[in-house]
Amino acid sequence: MQPPELAAFAAECKQRVESALTAFLPSPGTLPADLHEAMRYAALQGGKRVRPLLVYAAGGALNADPQALDVAASAVECIHAYSLVHDDLPAMDNDDLRRGQPTCHRAFGEALAVLAGDALQSKAFHLLAHAPMGPLKPATRLHMIELLALAAGSRGMAGGQAIDLAAVGRELDIAELEDMHIHKTGALIRASVLLGALCADSLDDAQRRALDHYGKCIGLAFQVQDDILDVTGSTEELGKQAGADRALRKPTYPDLLGLAGARERAGELHQRAIESLAGFGAEADPLRWLSAYIVARTH
Ligand code: GRG
């Protein structure tokens, strides 16, 4: 269940980021056509768009420039789409299904899927460097590029993925599991919140710290819920193979804490996220709804 306000907010933001991505990605006929088709397939085939929603929600809490938000939301979704394409490859999780459709390498072949992921990553940084972002200062753009690069790189998402690969079949304790997820999934979610906030000139240090703490909590909560859904969800509901973590002998929150303990951990993180928004009024409600959604989602 989600509040009707979140459904309306999400529908508007999804529509905005999907139109922006459709316009920003090279059109289907542009050469090399097969590569651009694979990029569009990976980025435009649905998905919950949680990271763009967080960009818009954080920016909305600070009255940020809408054009800048469209660019930041598209950039972070390009990084996310690239990570899913590479994560699904035979060398990684070897998945056949993503968002209810054949994975990119199943549809286009492995070599093209590698290239589509690479090019989506480059596109993200090109957008932040080049696309019109209203009155945003060049120094702010540079700061956003740095933030996204760190979140996606070896000390962020790619590093988390390396920790994940090394953990397969090993016993991790809860601190090691959290460290892996803070990097693998949490870093990009946390960066999405800050990217949205940076689209507002008015962002001050206290607001930045509060929003960063919010992003850190929901980034981890997202993964706890993902692990819960891997146990409780069906392949049909999830649009990807249910039980995949177990099949790959990956450590998960329900393994370490039990299902009830994992749910409790997700609830705690949600509470801490809400507390970090105490200094904001109703303008931050979409961030509150999104935190609640992240720990209640069913896919
Ligand atoms: C390959 C460098 C590299 C990184 C991959 C993020 C990631 C690291 C892998 C994704 C694998 C995975 C299923 C992680 C669990 C959490 C997660 C990120 C799920 C997918 O994100 P959603 O649920 O997907 O936001 P949609 O389809 O809604 O966009």
Descriptive overview:
- The chain has helices spanning 4-24, 33-44, 50-61, 66-88, 104-108, 110-130, 138-152, 157-167, 174-198, 205-232, 235-238, 244-247, 253-275, 285-296; strands at residues 97-98, 101-102.
- The chain has 299 residues and is mostly helical.
- The chain has a single domain (4-296), classed as Farnesyl Diphosphate Synthase (Orthogonal Bundle), CATH 1.10.600.10.
- The protein has a two-stranded antiparallel sheet with strand order 1-2.
- Helix 4 (66-88) packs antiparallel against helix 6 (110-130), helix 9 (174-198) packs across helix 10 and helix 10 packs antiparallel against helix 13 (253-275).
- The model has no long low-confidence stretch (mean pLDDT 93).
- The protein binds geranylgeranyl diphosphate.
- Residues 47-48, 50, 80, 83-84, 86-87, 99, 157-158, 161, 184-185, 223, 226 line the site of geranylgeranyl diphosphate.
Summarize the structure.
This protein has helices at residues 4-24, 33-44, 50-61, 66-88, 104-108, 110-130, 138-152, 157-167, 174-198, 205-232, 235-238, 244-247, 253-275, 285-296; strands at 97-98, 101-102. By secondary structure, it is mostly helical.
